[in-house]
């Protein structure tokens, strides 16, 4: 096992500022599309700029979009988030549809979580002293040593009588009372 995770920063995976609880705030702050106007490897990103960039900007008014043409350089997308993270992604020889999907992924992320060592899988602002809840937290300890099926612990004790059972019992009582009436006459 490697100890390379010791050199990563320690972090939690959590929604910043309770994002999504009251309202949703897009965490993508700025996106920079770097491309070459003539190189063939930039064809997909140029198609995205020509066809989808205006719609992307209209649908995401909180995201600032920069276009940075560079001569004879490979295309790339740099996304900057509210928490200060920057994600750089190469778009060399990617198609228009692939670039559209990757930009949607960058838009919905909250930053670069892969560069952090996760200390816990859960996070809360008000931690419990008792630990996390499980389905077995408030179970009766006698259940550990009981021989099952046991009517004491069975679910049949708590299930109310069905309508069919009630009708059967009423029919049996009516049948018995009809027989008593016949024999009593």
UniProtKB/TrEMBL annotation:
<feature type="domain" description="Ribosomal protein/NADH dehydrogenase">
    <location>
        <begin position="37"/>
        <end position="110"/>
    </location>
</feature>
<dbReference type="Pfam" id="PF05047">
    <property type="entry name" value="L51_S25_CI-B8"/>
</dbReference>
<keyword id="KW-0689">Ribosomal protein</keyword>
<keyword id="KW-0496">Mitochondrion</keyword>
<comment type="similarity">
    <text>Belongs to the mitochondrion-specific ribosomal protein mL43 family.</text>
</comment>
<dbReference type="InterPro" id="IPR007741">
    <property type="entry name" value="Ribosomal_mL43/mS25/NADH_DH"/>
</dbReference>
<dbReference type="GO" id="GO:0032543">
    <property type="term" value="P:mitochondrial translation"/>
</dbReference>
<dbReference type="InterPro" id="IPR036249">
    <property type="entry name" value="Thioredoxin-like_sf"/>
</dbReference>
<keyword id="KW-0687">Ribonucleoprotein</keyword>
<dbReference type="InterPro" id="IPR039927">
    <property type="entry name" value="Ribosomal_mL43"/>
</dbReference>
<dbReference type="GO" id="GO:0005762">
    <property type="term" value="C:mitochondrial large ribosomal subunit"/>
</dbReference>
<protein>
    <recommendedName>
        <fullName>Large ribosomal subunit protein mL43</fullName>
    </recommendedName>
</protein>
<dbReference type="GO" id="GO:0003735">
    <property type="term" value="F:structural constituent of ribosome"/>
</dbReference>
């Amino acid at each position: 096992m490697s100890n390379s995770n010791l050199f990563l920063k320690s972090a939690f995976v959590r929604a910043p500022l309770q994002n999504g609880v009251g309202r949703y705030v897009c965490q993508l702050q700025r996106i920079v599309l770097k491309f070459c106007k003539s190189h063939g490897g930039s064809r997909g990103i140029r198609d995205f700029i020509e066809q989808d960039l205006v719609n992307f900007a209209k649908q995401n008014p909180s995201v600032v979009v920069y276009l940075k043409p560079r001569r004879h350089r490979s295309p790339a997308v740099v996304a900057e988030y509210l928490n200060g993270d920057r994600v750089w992604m190469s778009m060399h020889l990617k198609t228009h549809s692939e670039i559209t999907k990757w930009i949607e992924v960058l838009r919905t992320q909250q930053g670069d979580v892969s560069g952090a060592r996760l200390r816990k899988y859960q996070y809360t602002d008000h931690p419990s002293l008792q630990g996390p809840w499980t389905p077995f937290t408030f179970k009766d300890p006698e259940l550990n040593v009981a021989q099952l099926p046991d009517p004491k612990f069975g679910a049949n004790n708590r299930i109310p009588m069905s309508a069919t059972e009630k009708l059967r019992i009423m029919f049996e009582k009516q049948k018995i009372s009809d027989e008593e009436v016949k024999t009593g006459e």
